[in-house]
């Protein structure tokens, strides 16, 4: 049986994906304009989101169902990178519309919670195979 930390990790990541996609839908015009400034079209933007969600789901499955410690550390490193990339936006975030600000804060909190769940002792033991049946 999977420990509570792994079950909660799975729930947190699924909620994170939902919020990520909802944020993209609500802020689509701004995302499209930012992509256009970089020379990318709407198709490229959709592809980036599709790849991002696919990678998140793959890592989720590898961690929560295949007990991959390597995937765990990849998740932690990518999560830290995601937070580091958005740190420069913190200063301007206070001027964002309230829904966009709340969604960004929710994403930061969920990313941190997901890492915390993976770094708990019961998750570590389970990922090493010491936590009972899959």
Overview of the structural elements:
With 134 residues, the protein is mostly helical. It has one domain. Helix content is 79%, strand content 0%. It contains 7 helices and no strands. Helix 1 packs antiparallel against helix 3, helix 1 packs antiparallel against helix 6 and helix 3 crosses helix 4. The longest helix has 23 residues. The chain is elongated and about 50 Å long. The N and C termini lie close together (6 Å). The model has no long low-confidence stretch (mean pLDDT 92).
Short description:
The protein is mainly α and 134 residues long. The protein has helices spanning 4-26, 28-37, 42-64, 69-86, 90-93, 98-118, 121-127.
Question: Which key phrases capture this entry?
Answer:
134 residues, mainly alpha, 7 helices
Order of helices and strands: HHHHHHH
Number of contiguous helices: 7
Helical proportion?
Answer: over 70%
Number of DSSP E strands = 0
Q: Please tell me what the overall shape is.
A: elongated
Strand content is under 5%
Mean pLDDT: 92
Question: By helix and strand content, what is the structural category?
Answer: mainly alpha
Rg, alpha carbons:
16 Å
Instruction: Report how far the terminal alpha carbons are from each other.
Output: 6 Å
Total of domains: 1
Low-confidence stretches: none
């Amino acid at each position: 049986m999977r420990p509570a930390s792994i079950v909660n990790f799975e729930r947190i990541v699924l909620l994170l994906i939902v919020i990520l996609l909802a944020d993209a839908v609500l802020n689509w015009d701004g995302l499209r304009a930012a992509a256009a400034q970089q020379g990318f079209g709407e198709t490229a933007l959709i592809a980036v989101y599709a790849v991002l969600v696919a990678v998140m789901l793959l890592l989720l499955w590898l961690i929560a169902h295949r007990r991959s410690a390597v995937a765990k550390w990849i998740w932690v490193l990518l999560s830290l990178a995601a937070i580091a990339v958005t740190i420069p936006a913190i200063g301007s975030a206070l001027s964002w519309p309230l829904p966009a600000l709340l969604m960004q804060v929710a994403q930061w909190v969920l990313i941190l919670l997901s890492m915390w769940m993976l770094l708990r002792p019961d998750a570590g033991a389970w990922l090493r195979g010491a936590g009972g049946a899959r």
